[in-house]
Amino acid sequence: MSTPIADLRDAFVRPGPADAVELRAFTHGLMPKRVPTMMQRFAEDWSQRGVDAWNQVPNHWQPGATNGAEDEVGWWTLPMVLGDAFIAPLLGAPHGTCIMQPHVHWTMQCLLSAPEVIERGNEVVLVDSAFPSVKHSVHRWEALNGLAPAVVDRPAHGHVDVERVIDRIGADTTMVVLSHVGFTTGQRIPDNKLRAVADAAHTHNALFVIDGYHSACTFPIQVDTLGADVYMGGLLKEGCGSSGNGFVYLREGLDLRPRLTGWFGNAEPFAFHDTPTPHPEVRRRFLGGTTAVASLYHAVEGVRLLLDAGLDAVHAHTQRLSQIVIDRAANAPFTMQSPRDPDQRSTLLVLQVPEAHRLCEYLKTQDIYTDSRKNRFLRMAPFVWNTEADMHRALDVLTEAITTKAYRDFEPETVGPVT
Ligand SMILES: Cc1ncc(COP(=O)(O)O)c(C=O)c1O
Q1: Domains of the chain, CATH where assigned
Q2: Residue of minimum CA distance from atom 11 in ligand 1
Q3: Which atom of ligand 1 is nearest to the CA of 133?
Q4: Do 235 and 224 meet the contact criterion of CB atoms below 8 Å apart?
Q5: DSSP state, 184?
Q6: The pTM is what?
Q7: What is the pLDDT at residue 69?
Q8: Dist. CA 18–CA 367, nearest whole Å
């Protein structure tokens, strides 16, 4: 039996008073209540087993784990164990195709360093609103091995136009990279459009890479239906993991040998051979140096909760809550920048408002937690811990603050950067 969404409200630690409205899932997920227990287990495994923990620790991760000897894993194998047990179900991916990564940046570097990528062509097609881990990586590799970014601009309304991307794909294309959900607008590219991009890429023997940072934990995904060769992301945000919890799926049969792989990506790392030999499992070639184990202890506690509730239910809930904002936006003193169409919207709603930074800090004093960008945009991301009442309260306070200009007298403290 799946967990009712309403039960998830209390499965996470929410900062601030009990009635505070937390709307920042797109920026950083809340901490699942089980995280301190998992970090305690890391300390116990390290203190009680020492170096032997690399080969054997109780399987604290598997649902219903008995902690018996037959149910043990090692720190060594955690990136693959978690990839199979938690990332593969998020993506509808087969066993043996998913692995944990430090971050998307690392995955991109591995991809760009693989000779099998540049053998296919020299252009990487991407959109101007790609996340820096993608866009900057491609720019940094520009000219190396003859690689050239082919950046597709967005139309004036700011949403990605998939037809423009498809038109840009050609004989020179080696790879097409698209975000499933864009981080500037929350625009979701519908599955059939992603499939059309995949087909265009494959016609030219190019790889189709999807950055699924904001999609993987918010609605069900079938990587094969989308035609993805590579699907990468991280659990820091809606996944409610934390930093150091990236992941990648690599389609079966995709034979890549990244040059930037590390010694953990070797066939026999502890044989310490003079020259490197890629691991026969392609996903393992995406490992670097010694795996950062501590963050893997709590990485999937959010995913566990979301999978228990069911990604269909998670999606239906967040859509219901975002519809409240869309309905009220018609008569509100702000404008919606995110798509309204259910097929094209995600958890993120971007509202254009006056003095977004000051307004956001003022809302915080009213226990409404949003975030702001470029001093023009207020971002709200209703998620599993939010209720309809939360949304109405947030919108009431926001509307009143803008209408009465109450926020204008408020002097915010300097705010630091957020991801
Ligand atoms: C679309 C997208 N990709 C990637 C990332 C993070 O990249 P990295 O894991 O390299 O920090 C983010 C973070 O906000 C994102 O929104």
Answers
A1: 5-26+311-409 (3.90.1150.10), 52-306 (3.40.640.10)
A2: 103
A3: 10
A4: no
A5: T
A6: 0.96
A7: 46
A8: 10
